[in-house]
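User: Predict the structure for this protein chain, please.
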Amino acid sequence: QVQLEESGGGLVQPGGSLRLSCAASGSIFSINTMAWYRQAPGKQRELVATVTRNGTTDYVDAVRGRFTISRDNTFNTVSLQMSSLKPEDTAVYYCKAAVATIPRYYYDYWGQGTQVTVSS
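Assistant: Here is the predicted structure, written as C-alpha cells:
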C-alpha cells in the first residue's frame, strides 16, 4: 500500500509565492517520475511539472520560469515552489508518483489534492 500526502496549499495574493510538498509512504521499493497536476473548476486536470529520478525537470509553458519542481529521493518527497502567482493558477493541485512496490513494476499513485487560491 502506498500513500501520497500533499501539504502547503492556501490563499495567496497575486504575485505571491507558495510551496507545495508531497510525501510518499508505504511499501515503496523505488519511485520513478514524480509530477504535479492541477485542476481548475470546470476544467480538465492538467500536467504542471515533472521530475525524473535523476532530477530532470519539465514544465508546462504556463508555469515555466515561475514554478520549480524538486524531489528528495532519500525521503520520497516532491515539492513545487510557486512564485509570481496569478489568479489563473487557482486550482486543486495533485501530486503523482510512479511507484514500484516490487522491482520493475511501476504504478501511478495520486495524492488527495490541495487547494491553491490566488486572489486579492
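The longest strand covers residues 91-102.
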